[in-house]
Amino acid sequence: MQVQVIYVSRHGASKRYAEAIAEALDGEAQSVEQVESFWGDAIVFVAGVYNHKLNPDMLEFIQTHRSDLYGRMWAGVAISLIEDERTWNGEKIGGPIYVRQYLGLFDRPPLALANFPGAVDLDQLTEEEKSNIQELFQIIGEDPHSVDNVDTEKVWTLSNRIKEIARQC
Q: E strand or H helix at 140, and its extent?
């Protein structure tokens, strides 16, 4: 099975996950800027979450290429600071909420959806973003600098799920 992994990464976490997924699937990771065509049996999209939404550059990329993606097998990955679903300031947030944002963009169901823990580079944020992130990490009881490694177990689980479902299609 040939797999193209397409990512958008501002701070490097999405890129690291895309490369790990591509390696696990014997595929190739490409940033949206590098994509010249779509190839392979399946495409995995990897994007970070900013202000509780998938990276707008990925959403725009998918919308722009919607006709080229029609009928293709796909999977979506969100890289976010919060893995589980929570309520914050009266709004539902967290990985399951974020990764579902891919669903309305395609004409067929995904091979898989996943949310992986991401990292944040506080030095690259505005003061308001920094304040929001620090408040969020206080709520979840973690240090913003503690989440920075690729969770290889989750990558292998996702990769095996993609392979198994793709074989059945």
A: helix 127-140
At 141, the amino acid letter reads G
Where helices occur in 8-151 by DSSP H, the ranges are 13-24, 56-64, 66-69, 95-99, 127-140
Asked if 111 contacts 42 with a C-beta cutoff of 8 angstroms, the reply is yes
Q: How far is CA 40 from the centre of its chain?
A: 19
Q: Report d(CA 56, CA 79) in Å as an integer.
A: 13
Q: Which two tokens stand for residue 133?
A: 């992130």
CA distance 55 to 73: 21
Q: How many other CB atoms are found less than 10 A from the CB of residue 142? A: 14
- Which pLDDT tens digit goes with each residue over 112-144? 999 888 766 667 677 887 787 778 777 767 776
Joined together, the tokens standing for residue 78 give 């969100």
Indicate the pTM of the whole model: 0.83
